[in-house]
């Protein structure tokens, strides 16, 4: 079954994130690899890397994912600003490999009025340059689906497919499906029929084999609103049913499903408990 978890703090060092996730009842965690509000951070120490790996080995966690800094914009039309983002993204890739983390989730970027096609081209070019610099690395780069707020790209499956098609080393590319973002972008998964239709569309346009991680968030805003506002599971406009279907979908049985819901650790515990209650026992069967 899918590995349920949450985004946890790295306060005091990345090595401390593992015990926090375990205490919450996580089966998977997502972390930042550094202070996501700063462009520059000190390199990971050998002590932190060693302790992080040791803590993972001793823990019951099945998967760890990194989310890159929100400062990064791989679609920035200004050359110097984009280079700053590429350099920071490469640093994220290096940190993922040092920690032996398989997936780096990133927001594709904002075109800042330069136009969607130009922005998509710049994202692909940025990824090619980053992978070329870190060609011996192993981390898979996961494009996150977005709500399409403002000038943000990645709110249509076609945009994500175009980005991936223009990346030379496609083996390094995957997708993170954020439920709230997809809903806010206009993709409905609230009923069995609409759920089936959305993932059939994803498979046709991108390919389900590229979908590696989920962000599980309900939405405070209406379907197609293009306004990114997360809500706790079952408390928003999506309701419980999409999440019930996701946690029982056999196609995603080896996928991390990460909460980014409001309310901090206490609400993570509530949401995790609810998600676990949705699970159908194996002998009863799932989707």
Give a short overview.
The protein has helices spanning 17-24, 46-58, 79-98, 116-133, 157-165, 179-185, 192-205, 241-247, 264-278, and strands spanning 3-7, 28-31, 63-67, 103-106, 140-144, 173-178, 211-216, 218-219, 230-231, 256-259. It is α/β, with parallel strands linked by helices and 287 residues long.
Can you give a write-up of this model?
- With 287 residues, this protein is α/β, with parallel strands linked by helices.
- It has one domain (3-278): Divalent-metal-dependent TIM barrel enzymes (TIM Barrel), CATH 3.20.20.
- It has helices at 17-24, 46-58, 79-98, 116-133, 157-165, 179-185, 192-205, 241-247, 264-278; strands spanning 3-7, 28-31, 63-67, 103-106, 140-144, 173-178, 211-216, 218-219, 230-231, 256-259.
- The strands form 2 sheets. The chain has an 8-stranded parallel beta barrel, surrounded by 4 helices.
- The protein is globular.
- The N and C termini lie close together (11 Å).
